[in-house]
Amino acid sequence: MSADPSRLPRPPLPSADWALFLDVDGTLLDFSCTPDGVHVPMDLLGDLRRLHAALGGALALVSGRRLETLDALFSPLQLPAIGLHGLQRRGANDAGHAPPHELASVLAAARDLAAKYPGALVEDKGITLALHWRNAPAAEEPLHEFANSVLIDLPGYALQPGRDVIELRPDGHDKGDGIAALLDTAPFRGRMPVFIGDDYTDEHGFDAVNARHGLSVLVGTRADSAATHALHDPLSVRAWLRDAAHALAPEVAAAT
């Protein structure tokens, strides 16, 4: 773990043999009061499109969001992607991941609890359930207690903590698993993996790329991170991506 992330170096600009994996919320995009309130800048879409082409398609989004939500956010792009913390991968058949019938009653109970704390939010992701308290700090302890109490009703599920959120999700899947799986397939195979992320959920991804002698980039200054490099905030990430697009595809970037 890094003792002083504020002293971690900035990542170098990419070369054409990189495989670039990008977390979304808190990394590419600034946080919003609600998951639906995030804004995707138009220039970010252009930079992602150019980098995707310059890297031969080896650029992927990595998120706790569903693939359908990622596609809607980043439309008209449809990039390679890992969704639901590794449960979904672009092109993978995840039909076997059906939500257990017990999840419906847990969802109803979670909504009843959240209703007691204005600003608390229950996000239904199909097979996973996220409990948010960003706008209701008083709900943090009750939502944590609730999540722990219902695990007994959800065999095979585990808790995934994050920034102002705790998620109930099937155990045995994480962002690192998703990244490792893509790295075994074209066009990612044989490239140097680089993952940029901000949250505790991204540490599995950092471990995955570090194990393959890649670069792990923390967004922010968390002390307990395996990251080897750092960027300050999403604005810094977007600026780095713009510089990367210019470096890898200068003639295209200059024309935009």
Automatic annotation (TrEMBL):
<dbReference type="GO" id="GO:0000287">
    <property type="term" value="F:magnesium ion binding"/>
</dbReference>
<keyword id="KW-0460">Magnesium</keyword>
<dbReference type="GO" id="GO:0005992">
    <property type="term" value="P:trehalose biosynthetic process"/>
</dbReference>
<dbReference type="InterPro" id="IPR006379">
    <property type="entry name" value="HAD-SF_hydro_IIB"/>
</dbReference>
<dbReference type="GO" id="GO:0004805">
    <property type="term" value="F:trehalose-phosphatase activity"/>
</dbReference>
<keyword id="KW-0378">Hydrolase</keyword>
<comment type="function">
    <text>Removes the phosphate from trehalose 6-phosphate to produce free trehalose.</text>
</comment>
<comment type="similarity">
    <text>Belongs to the trehalose phosphatase family.</text>
</comment>
<protein>
    <recommendedName>
        <fullName>Trehalose 6-phosphate phosphatase</fullName>
        <ecNumber>3.1.3.12</ecNumber>
    </recommendedName>
</protein>
<keyword id="KW-0479">Metal-binding</keyword>
<dbReference type="InterPro" id="IPR036412">
    <property type="entry name" value="HAD-like_sf"/>
</dbReference>
<dbReference type="Pfam" id="PF02358">
    <property type="entry name" value="Trehalose_PPase"/>
</dbReference>
<dbReference type="InterPro" id="IPR003337">
    <property type="entry name" value="Trehalose_PPase"/>
</dbReference>
<dbReference type="InterPro" id="IPR044651">
    <property type="entry name" value="OTSB-like"/>
</dbReference>
<dbReference type="InterPro" id="IPR023214">
    <property type="entry name" value="HAD_sf"/>
</dbReference>
<comment type="pathway">
    <text>Glycan biosynthesis; trehalose biosynthesis.</text>
</comment>
